């Protein structure tokens, strides 16, 4: 399996594959790969001839007080895992390669970025949209694969692709969970044993919300209140947000109508975890 670190070389590699008539599937990641990432690689392998995986911890999507410096970077392990799942090539650029001296262009996606994690992490989606746009240029794939766990991120990227006429199909794949329901995340490794046990409250709360909706409770305020009660009964948990939003626009919903997303961001100790469930 090839590891490419220069944008120009990556573009040339894709060009050769396309000339040979091969299709390209692409999974952008920040590394610290887990079963969630590997499921995306396997899906891409089923649908494409070549699977490219980027491993780049993007500095522009982290806030000043966030975990950029301590974000895990186990490159050798990541390469081994990606290869085992079916990756053909790894794109692993440096920060200087992606943002050379004098860099001054950023991508801003509008209204869809303003709520949920966008409200909690100012500038985050500016960094996400910018780096994903750059990665789509470096790895001009037929399909790009993202996990539902980062639902807002996936919708932001879909919007960017539509608005900027980027020739890639965005594929959103299901959340992969641990046995107790915790959504797999690279940040889960920050949790100690007690925190890890407590983190299961996110999925438990989502399941209760789903059951309430199935029982014909329509008022989102009632559902959110019950979700908050479940999470806050856990002493290690601190709610960042609990929202029920339209699945397409991400606008807050007062009543359950059509397809909605129940979205959570919760601190377990010092670790911020997100999760969601799509209903309808």
Short descriptors:
three-stranded antiparallel sheet, 2 domains, Rossmann fold, six-stranded parallel sheet, 9 strands, globular, alpha/beta, 38% helix, 280 residues, Pantoate--beta-alanine Ligase, Chain: A,domain 2
Topology:
Blueprint: E1 2-4, H1 7-19, E2 24-29, H2 35-47, E3 50-55, H3 75-85, E4 89-91, H4 95-98, H5 116-120, H6 124-138, E5 143-147, H7 151-163, E6 169-173, H8 193-198, H9 201-214, H10 220-232, E7 237-246, E8 260-268, E9 271-279
Parallel strand pairs: 1-4, 2-3, 2-5, 3-4, 5-6
Antiparallel strand pairs: 7-8, 8-9
Helix pairs in contact: 6-7, 9-10
Describe the structure.
- The protein is of the alpha/beta class and 280 residues long.
- It folds into 2 domains: 2-173, HUPs (Rossmann fold), CATH 3.40.50.620; 186-275, Pantoate-beta-alanine ligase, C-terminal domain (Pantoate--beta-alanine Ligase, Chain: A,domain 2), CATH 3.30.1300.
- Helix content is 38%, strand content 20%.
- The protein has 10 helices and 9 strands.
- The chain has helices at 7-19, 35-47, 75-85, 95-98, 116-120, 124-138, 151-163, 193-198, 201-214, 220-232; strands at 2-4, 24-29, 50-55, 89-91, 143-147, 169-173, 237-246, 260-268, 271-279.
- The strands form 2 sheets. Strands 1-4-3-2-5-6 form a 6-stranded parallel sheet, sandwiched between helices. A 3-stranded antiparallel sheet has the order 7-8-9.
- Strand 5, helix 7 (151-163) and strand 6 form a beta-alpha-beta unit.
- Helix 6 (124-138) packs across helix 7 (151-163) and helix 9 (201-214) packs antiparallel against helix 10 (220-232).
- It starts with a strand and ends with a strand.
- The model has no long low-confidence stretch (mean pLDDT 97).
